[in-house]
Amino acid sequence: METAPRTPVFEARGITKTYRMGEVSVPALRGVDVAFYEGELVVLLGPSGSGKSTLLNVLGGLDVPTAGSVRWRDHDLARPDERELTRYRRDHVGFVFQHYNLVPSLTARENVALAAEIAREPMAPEEALGLVGLSARLDHFPSQLSGGEQQRVAIARAVVKRPEVLLCDEPTGALDAATGRLVLEVLSRVNRELGTTTVIITHNATIAEMADRVLSLRDGVVVEERTNTAKRTPAELSW
Amino acid sequence: MKALDRKLLRDLWHLRAQALAIALLIGCAVAALVGSVTTWQALQRTQARYYESPPLPHVFAEVQRAPREVADRLAELPGVAEVEARLGSAGTVELERGVTAPITARLMSQPPGGSRLSRLHLRAGRTLAGPGEVLVGEGFAEAWGLGPGDRLAVVVNGRRERLRVVGVALSPEVIYAIRPGDLFPDDRHFALLWVEEAALAAALDLVGAFDEVALVLGPGADEAAVLAGVDRVLAPYGCAGAYGRDRHVSHRFLTDEIGQLRSMAAVVPTLFMGVAAFLVSLVVSRLVATERSQIGMLKALGWPSGAVAGHYAELVGLIALLGAALGGAGGLAMGQALARTYARYYRLPLLAFEGDWAVVGLSAALALAAALAGAAGALRRVQRLPPAEAMRPEAPLDYRPSLLERLGLAALLSQPGRMVVRGLGRRPVRAALGTLGLALAVAIMVVAAFMNDAIDLMLWRQLGEAQRQDLSVTFTGAISEDAVGELRALPGVRAVEGQRVVAAVLRHGHRSSRTPLVGLSPDGDLSRLVAQDGTVVTLPPAGLVLSRQLATTLGITPGERLRVEVAERRRPVLSVPVAALVDDLVGVTAALSRGDLEARLGEPGLVTGALVAVDPARAAEVEVAVARLPKVLAVTSRPATVKALHGLLDELLMTYMAVIAVLASGIAMGVAYNTGRIAWAERERELATLRVIGLTRGEAWRILAGELLALMAGAVPLGLLLGAGFVAYLAAAAATDLFRIPAVVAPRSYAIAALVVSAAVAVVALVARRWVARMDLVASLAARE
Asked: N or C: where does chain B have the smaller number of CB atoms within 10 Å of the terminal CB?
């Protein structure tokens, strides 16, 4: 349906990642080749231990592969240069964590400001919170917010810097289905309206139905790649 | 304000109790440092300023009688800037108000128009204007309520003279006013008197002559050369050797005191800072562990590692600065109070307390450095924590059976007991740090108690076991031992022992010491040589017994011979073997049997003093009777000395030690509280789980309390050991010729140190019951943020 060939924003070739745990080495990724394209919403699907989180960490510049090459545009993400990776995360990537990782001592607005303050052209924290439907909860502390609201604050924090990439690690993992759908709505809207390349990892196969493309991982390799011909909206999902 | 700064302030508020405990601890350290250093500096500056104008002489010498012209010859010695020939003498004072105990006095001459060198500081009245007038020292004046207009009589050289007090004065040369041979001042029974030179010369038959001389040296003068020159010039006039400021008793007392303050200023605050650093380390480690995912998140957002570590460093810095501010203010107040106490005690007419901001600044910087050093490990972990950690839940700690269990002693442990033991074994470093923190609190308590114990022991050895006489009698010179018989004949006297004291310079190689030889009755019971461990050293029939301190000064060991230059009468030079050493605590002694001394001098049957034991019921009466005997120059009552000494100690040392003890208890509380908080924070989730499973509050609490108890059990013995170590160091650092502070701590003090810290931990354990009781099970089990 698209006019090929597109240039990928992310390109990973033969990446492996091995963790050393004392005397045993545990392979998390075993030769993964993937590409992600501008503006698409990709779901990485797989059971726990399949290597999807490791892949996300590598894409986000949180971790470097043991071998192989990863590029984001002209950034080499395989080189373990902490300063350069920090720069990359700061300027281009938004993260959404399974457990939200909000600072409990800061209000919603302040949590979002934490990211806005170090960004080059951020939107106002209020605007980002408006985007996720939390305009009325600006000055609430995390402990005064529901789980879904906390995750939406975390999304606002991720998008406030107008990132080119949004990486989400089990964003609905700690939420009930209804709240989860609400959060996915927000992610889908950000992807649509801001054109942010979005990668969501999950073990929930239903969520894959909202993606442009689905990559299935098992034991550190991509076992299946499919393009959704009929993408569904989050509201249509049920689990 | 940046969001991260807001986080900083809110975190600080959230941690307020722990932060305050640490700030107070740092405050204690800073206060102890600022207080000790400013006191020390104030005394040092005061001493320097007091000596400045007119300058305190650099060289002193006493002769029997030298014509005035001899002083001019001294002035010609190279390096000598100024010479003052003086008259000085011992005497007794009779007050008009029915005083029972005799009063000894030191009389000093004032040339017409006042002394050039030791200008007196007048505290009341006016200077001398003629014969028949006297200036009295402030201590004596205050002890008896004397002032201008009062009258007193002085007996000098057998002549009684009535004098009118015209003023009260102080002199930098006699800051520490003690009778020759005494160690502690006794203002009620020892007077400093200044009278007109001509009048004193007439009384002493020294018209046109002098018996004391003081010299001021020019810049760059060679003191040793001047001393040798003075000795040469004065040798024919009965000089026992000139000496510099370092041998000047009053100067030395003050200088030693300042030196001791300095060693205290080094040790105590170091201990406090160490404890503070440990606490910071514990609290920040815990904080960093709790905020692991936040740290990862900040890095994932793109905050540089340095900035994130800086955020935690700022938190530590704020706590340290709060402590430094509290401690700085407290320390200045403490320094001022202490310096005033010292100035009052030493009767310094001025006090150069400048409350240096540099000291406060430096102490604050040290506190900050100590706190950051304590936090360094945790900050490094923040710096190194990979951002991917934000994505992972904390892995369960790697537990394994504890050593006790592996030894098959598991049956001895209850389930909570096993949790406690494994918990400590899993984080051995943190358990060790917690133990060390509590141990340091114990050690500080031990150090705080030590001075008290040491002084008690010193007094007991010196005034209880070594000197057992009631009265010490000094005769006007070496007289026939018939005088001992006369004393024995007085009603109320139980025992008398004659003594022969000879002024001498002891030499061994190039080292020397002006220490008199004391000839004692070998079978004497009133004056004994007692070592600090309580052993009594018996006098050998021949040879000297030296204080270990003196032997060290002279570099001599038993078996070697000492050259003794007798500084009176025929001035023979003797070679006397050292027979034994005594490890005594107060002053330095060169003692030998009186018979041996007489044989070496070739002067049998003479005594210079006597020790008297009296019937307690008739003590006052005997004292007066003894003082009225002819040839008796001075009488010292031991009970009076003990009383004066206690006054001194209560005023000076106890003030300082009380402050330290209060700070130490504060530290014990601070350490206990923080240790408890940290144990709680680490176990909260686990305890919540156990409560959910069905454990009662009491059962859950016992696990927490058990951990505190286990830390405590390790901390007490370690703390007592550490305390003993610090005490040994302090005692060694504070030893002088005048005092050796014994490194002893009474068992009672050890017990108190252990009890205070244990009590603090027990209080915290009880408070922890409330933490467990108030635990919100749902919140505690909710996902960690």
From this structure: N
